[in-house]
Write a structure and sequence with these properties.
A hairpin with a 5-residue loop joins β5 and β6. The chain is built from 27 helices and 20 strands. Helix content is 47%, strand content 11%.
């Protein structure tokens, strides 16, 4: 996969006389980046397929996303080149696809290229037949032969010439049919034999991580290192299993150490924005130091939630601070005025010294590292000698720059900020109290943030995706539970985490949902909603709504989650064997076939999250059909859970919850009252992944909830005080008005 490295990219500066191609009316920022290429790009639609059949040309499906650095490089080098574009227009019908808008199309073709070549990434360039069967593909191609790769013009000409030769075209068609057969085999998730689910499989998932764990630097495996939030998500649940089910404190602590150390080292590295908060996409090295600088909403949503969980378990303020800063970044820089969350920020931006300038070639030169890196002299000029020296020592800033290997010379005399020395070491170095060092560093970061804010910003992909917004709603709801009614300290956002989560849910309901037809949409941008929702849109949004209910106790969110789940099951659930298809049956007739994702990767699969939602909803509603669908899905994926457990760690954690004793915690009281809040504080002091939490007030809300769980009608306050009812494995403890008794009822074996 050609996805690493630091380079220079350019964004086209077109004139009024430039002729746009067929992408000009699209909403995707990625497609619009290519709308003035001389390539005759088409969006993914029948018009392009019909033209290919009419002109008897092969089809190029080129897939990327707006913040993809090497997509920018190939756009500048090849797609903006008139001579190369002339070749493409002569031999091909060229289609551009935004992988974030159409993850279904991307999933098919990236799987195909991976099967052909052994790896795949973006930009993804796939040549397909008129039946859309892939027969050749790759990722980045240079404009001329380089680094062992053929030049893009040579690839285009060879494919085009072969297609025009009948015997060779027949071979290409045969290859396409064979690859489609292979794709069907590769994407056939699950197995034909249902197995009895076994908690012992959790050990295999744990061992798969333990054997690749980097005890020094955190993370799993060599460079490049991706945050992989599903790893920490699983380890926290494995630790709970080891502590509560096995009574093995040593195993629990080992799992926690792996997760917490990884989160700690990530937050200290350059992959974390030390000035503005939030995480970059991945680290190109093995120590989290040198990142690929784009920022994605789905990364920051999942990581913020993991840091909240880490704080809840460890009570280490360091994790809470990273969660606050990450959420603050999203609320400050990635939030629509009406409440939804944008998708991403680019890695590339214009260097400050070139602001307002355009090169003679008509291209404004952007650099991947421009917004985030610093010269030592610049820092000293801003902070002064004393505070500057303290800051530079703490964050590893050097006069000659701190990036040792810089093949593209973009880091010359510049620095990536990472924590080079502990606070204790920094205090000792300068002979000051640690509290003074903390205060000075915070002041310095605020001043540098203000200066950096004046630099040309990276481009922002401002489309709003239902699935990623669901992930962010979950993070904010959990932050409200654990961190309380806080507001970001940096920037202009002045909203609590709960207010932000509710605003996002309301935005999706108003802009991406048709309540009359119960239709959910995948993407919104500039007042246009488009693309029918995929399974992960439903699953991630339902997860967010369940978390939002447990944070706000507004039954509106629970009812919507139930309605969405019913619709999700109609559209995506395989009633025959279990599992969830990525797309509905009528989603797009041009897709080769429907896929069930069988991997929890940088995002968990729709099946994994939907299964967890079904288990939670079964507890909220006592609906057997929800629990049966969850269990059937787990059994369908049981061969993968047993034999390839690392590929489905999120689902493996879900299987643990399905097989462990559930906790139902009901508090009778006013959610806003002091005594109810004391009860909630006692509950949230413990990490209990397999719980459902409800608050009933004795009025219409309680009556509405009792329609799903009739026994709730009998729940009432004792002595007119907030009263907790703790039920473990369907056996209820005596009701109590004492938060300390609640803590004891929840058990000393629960992770704290």
């Amino acid at each position: 996969m050609i996805a690493l490295g630091i380079g220079v990219a350019c964004m086209e500066s077109h004139s009024a006389a430039s002729k746009p191609n067929h992408l000009i009316h699209e909403k995707s920022p990625y497609l619009l980046q290519h709308a003035y290429n001389p390539v005759e790009w088409y969006p993914w639609r029948e018009e392009a397929f019909a033209k290919a059949r009419k002109e008897n040309k092969p089809i190029l499906v080129s897939i990327g996303y707006s913040t993809c650095h090497w997509c920018h490089v190939m756009e500048r080098e090849s797609y903006s080149n008139p001579k190369i574009a002339e070749l493409m227009n002569k031999y091909l019908i060229s289609i551009k696809v935004d992988r974030e808008e159409r993850p279904d199309v991307d999933k098919l073709y990236i799987t195909a290229v991976s099967a052909m070549t052994g790896s795949a990434g973006w930009p993804l360039n796939v040549f397909v037949t008129h039946d859309l069967q892939p027969f050749f593909g790759g990722t980045y191609f240079p404009p001329e032969p380089r680094w062992g790769h053929p030049g893009w013009p040579q690839v285009v000409e060879q494919i085009g010439s072969a297609w025009q030769d009948p015997p060779q075209r027949e071979k290409l068609l045969e290859s396409g049919a064979n690859i489609q057969d292979l794709l069907k085999q590769v994407t056939a998730a699950g197995g034909t034999k249902e197995e009895i689910l076994d908690l012992a499989w959790l050990h295999r998932g744990f061992e798969s991580l333990r054997t690749t764990y980097d005890a020094q630097r955190g993370g799993f495996g060599p460079a490049p290192k991706f945050p992989m939030p599903v790893h920490q998500h699983f380890l926290f649940r494995y630790a709970d299993y080891a502590q509560r089910t096995l009574g093995d404190a040593a195993k629990a602590q080992t799992a926690l150490k792996m997760a917490l150390h990884t989160l700690r080292t990530m937050a200290q590295g350059g992959i974390y924005d030390q000035i503005g908060g939030g995480f970059h996409r991945y680290s190109t090295d093995d120590r989290w130091f040198l990142p690929h600088f784009e920022k994605m909403l789905y990364d920051n949503a999942q990581l913020a939630l993991n840091y909240v969980d880490a704080y809840q378990i460890s009570q280490n303020e360091e994790f809470a601070q990273v969660a606050r800063e990450t959420l603050g970044y999203v609320l400050r820089d990635m939030t629509h005025p009406q409440g939804g969350f944008y998708s991403a920020e680019d890695a590339d931006s214009l260097p400050p010294e070139l602001a307002g300038t355009v090169s003679a070639s008509g291209l404004a030169h952007k650099a991947e590292v421009a917004f985030y890196i610093w010269r030592q002299k610049e820092i000293l000029d801003i902070l002064g000698q004393v505070d500057g020296d303290i800051f530079c020592f703490r964050y590893g800033v050097e006069s000659g720059g701190n990036v040792a290997s810089d093949p593209h010379e973009e880091f010359s005399s510049k620095n990536v900020l990472s924590v080079a020395h502990s606070l204790a070491h920094t205090a000792k170095q300068f002979g000051l109290p640690e509290t003074t060092i903390v205060q000075r560093l915070e002041q310095s970061k605020r001043r540098l943030f203000q200066v950096r804010a004046k630099r040309p910003r990276p481009d922002r992909d401002d489309k709003i995706l239902t699935s990623w917004n669901g992930l962010m709603i979950s993070a904010l709801a959990r932050a409200h539970q654990i961190l309380g009614k806080e507001k970001p300290k940096q920037g202009s956002a002045q909203t609590t985490y709960l207010e932000a989560a509710e605003a996002a849910a309301q935005f999706i309901r108003a802009n991406l949902y048709d309540s009359k037809q119960r239709l959910l949409f995948h993407r919104w941008r500039e007042n246009e909603r488009s693309i029918p929702a995929l399974a992960d849109d439903f699953a991630f949004l339902v997860q967010g709504l369940l978390d939002l209910y447990e944070a706000s106790f507004n039954p509106t969110w629970l009812e919507w989650a139930i309605n969405l789940t019913e619709e999700q099951n109609k559209l995506f659930y395989d009633t025959a064997v279990g599992g969830f298809y990525m797309t509905a049956a009528n989603h797009d007739p041009h897709l080769l076939f429907r896929i069930k994702e069988d991997t929890d990767n940088v995002e968990p699969s729709a099946s994994s999250v939907a299964t967890l939602n079904l288990l939670r909803l079964a507890q909220f509603t006592d609906r057997a059909d929800f629990r049966q669908a969850a269990e059937k899905t787990l059994r369908f994926f049981s061969p993968n859970l047993k034999q390839a457990s690392r590929s489905l760690l999120y689902m493996l954690g879900t299987m643990y919850l399905a097989l462990s004793k559930p906790y139902q915690i009901i508090i009778a009281g006013d959610p806003a009252s002091t005594d109810t809040q004391a009860m909630l504080t006692a509950v949230h002091a413990r990490f209990i992944p397999n719980k459902v939490l409800m608050v009933v007030e004795g009025g219409p809300i309680q009556a509405a909830l009792a329609k799903h769980l009739p026994f709730l009608a009998t729940i009432k306050r004792l002595k007119n005080q907030a009263t907790a009812y703790v039920c473990i494995n369907y056996t209820c403890q005596l009701p109590t008005t004492d938060p300390e008794v609640v803590a004891k009822q929840l058990g000393g074996d629960v992770l704290r």
